[in-house]
Amino acid sequence: MNHNAVPDTTSFDDEDHNTSGNPSFESVLDARLSRRSMLRGTVGTAATAVLGGWSVAACGGSDDDAPLDPNAPITKLGFASVAKSIEDRVSVPAGYTATTFYALGDPLTAATPAYKNDGTDTDFENRAGDHHDGMEYFGLSADGTQRDVNGSVRGLLAMNHEATSNKGSDPRSYYLHANGGTLNPRPVGEADKEIAVHGLSVIEVRKTAGTWGYVQASAYNRRVTPLTPVEITGPARGNALLKTKYSPAGTSTRGTLNNCGTGLTPWGTFLTGEENWNGYFTRGTADNAARDARSVASLNRYGRSQGAASRHGWETAGSADVYARWNISKTGVSTDGTDDYRNELNGFGYIVEMDAYDKTVALRKRTALGRFAHESAAFSLPKPGKPLAVYMGDDSRGEYIYKFVSAANWAASDSAPANRITTGDKYLDSGKLYVAKFNADGTGQWIELNMANALIAAYATYAFADQADILVNARLAADAVGATKMDRPEWCAVHPTTGEVYYTLTNNANRRVEPTGSQQALDAANPRAYRDTQLDNTTASSNSPGNVHGHIIRLAEVGGESAAVGFSWDVYLFGAESTSTNSSINVSSLTADQDFSSPDGLWFSKNTGLCWIQTDDGSYTDVTNCMMLAGVPGTVGDGAKTTLTFTKADLTTMTVETYVGKKPAADTLKRFLVGPKQCELTGCAETPDGKTLFANIQHPGEELAAVADILNPARFTSYWPGNAGYQATAGNTTSRPRSATVAITKNDGGRIGT
Ligand code: FEO
Ligand code: CA
Ligand code: CA
């Protein structure tokens, strides 16, 4: 779903449940950078048969084995910026080729039939899921038998399938059904398909004669769905809050849900963040009376007040347990919840770890990292003898930025462990969880969430029972300590040499110059609120107030230490429309070659050091579809303290001081890709040689005007990738649109961005 700045009461992806009244806090701290360089080896060799690969242009890419230069960051972007576009296609710079190779429904076993894409396909447990999202690349040796961190022509892609397109409160995922589907009660067959398109994929990918594709019959291929058994680990394992009919011991649950951002561990596993999972569950209109006050407070804070409807109505498909679990009302008579699904919601909202190389290993939900609407999980630069930090964000309006610091110190030998998932136990099951406060003077503080904090121990809104309770209800603990309410933290990423941490703050429809009710006032770290100047929305009155275009904030830990409790910060970039002449809106002075709105995906290339920015926008879409940009970032503090000015209702002005990074030059920020209609760009990964960039095109054509329009292809709002010739006739205007993966290579075989 598009992440519009406009509040949308029917959107399951634009949550807003933070009504806490946090105080301000001041602290003065210095911060300094640390610098490291990454060492790399050589790449593997080309492999053989590939299925599914298809390119948008003739490709001259090579499979050469040139040694990598570990000290060659790109300092000036070498490509010509791609123009903004509302065409229904993928645009990349001259000299580059984008190859589409893994779209919704593509088969993952030799026996699975080709996807017909007419709503009659089944067996999605053996097909690509929907709404491709975050993604990580895992290199393979040339013979395919083992992990090779330098493998650049053969590897695995692990990715999220976040959601499936439906309209507002209409539960039907219309593109998956021949006639658009059936309203509640949902037929079993429809519910089964919609459930199975969620979760994760692992696919083997290979480059043959310069063209990427996935291997349909690879033994590595795997689908994880909302029904796959998953272990619960860390401090909340076995806690009373996790006990369900499925797992009376509170040690496991089924599946992972609404997976958005990802992470790559230093030991070679995949992390996935569960984001807007709450919307899939329904709760009875009188359920409050059946629960205690703490349970009700928790459910309300996590977006499931009594009477909440579920996104897809799967609980209406039958009495079988796989449908009943989507109703989290207290229906049983037990005192501990082991005869119903009253606690089912507490099994979601985690960072989940998967060993992409071994599909026999169960996934593990890492409760030590806290429960909220997770996006990506980005590691500090591993330093032997020091703990690892994992940076994370909570994507809802006015939610927080978090970090986890491992109890274990990093051992370099763990970069190639004998057992990857138990290495995850070592680093991710015990440690400290912190939440961020941003101060007006350009510093910030990490506040540990534990019972030793008097604000938590004495919190009047919610009486925490123990540390597991603090982790499961991390939002409430963060409220208690007065964390800074941010403009929807999306992905975070760590710069590969400086270790500085970047966060996209995508937009916030609740930020105001003069807030009322639960709206948020301007502060130094979230310093803009204004009205969109273009009529992107259907009526002027709904025309996007708030932080319309979002920004990218970055932090430098004090002393460059992962365990630091203080940091300094500034804003790397402010999203804006380049036609804006207001320097308090277009603060970063973006030009037409650089302007963007609603940054979401964020990722650094370890090979080139480039910062990749992906958008999920609803405020500039009258001018351009969503996009990817490449940036050459500087460092925290390379810009200037800046005063922004906004007009109040009585036409007097108010000012806000913030810290703005050095403004981008023409060759340090450029638009690299524009996607097809109504998509978002998300998921970014590269081969270790820096010569292939993978990205996901999520939900092209997601805004079908009416479900009945599924029977009238002329009304489809996108035909991609079928219209580009992927498993269909090029130029057609009949194909149902599909989320898909693209591989981008440079025609001269060079590194991406040069
Ligand atoms: Fe799934 Fe917050 O984006
Ligand atoms: Ca996102
Ligand atoms: Ca606009």
Describe the structure.
- By secondary structure, the protein is mainly beta.
- It has a 9-stranded antiparallel beta sheet with strand order 13-14-15-16-17-25-24-19-18. A 6-stranded mixed beta sheet has the order 8-7-12-11-10-9, covered by helices on one side.
- Strand 14 and strand 15 form a beta hairpin.
- It is globular, with a radius of gyration of 24 Å.
- Residues 1-10, 23-68 and 535-542 have low confidence and may be disordered.
- Bound molecules: MU-OXO-diiron (FEO) and calcium ion (2 copies).
- The site of one calcium ion (CA) has 6 residues, from loops.
Name a few traits of the molecule.
nine-stranded antiparallel β-sheet; 754 residues; 7 helices; disordered N terminus; 34 strands; six-stranded mixed β-sheet; mainly beta; binds MU-OXO-diiron
Strands ordered across the widest β-sheet: 13-14-15-16-17-25-24-19-18
Average pLDDT for all residues: 91
Kindly report how far apart the N and C termini lie. Answer: 33 Å
Question: Quick one: overall form?
Answer: globular
Main sheet specs: 9 strands, antiparallel
What small molecules accompany the polymer chains?
MU-OXO-diiron, calcium ion
The radius of gyration computed from the alpha-carbon positions, rounded to a whole number of angstroms, is 24 Å
Decide which structural class fits the backbone. Answer: mainly beta
Low-confidence stretches: 1-10, 23-68, 535-542
Care to count the β-strands?
34
Number of distinct helices: 7
Oligomeric nature of the chains: single chain
Helix content: under 10%
How much of the polypeptide forms β-strand, as a percent range?
A: 25-35%
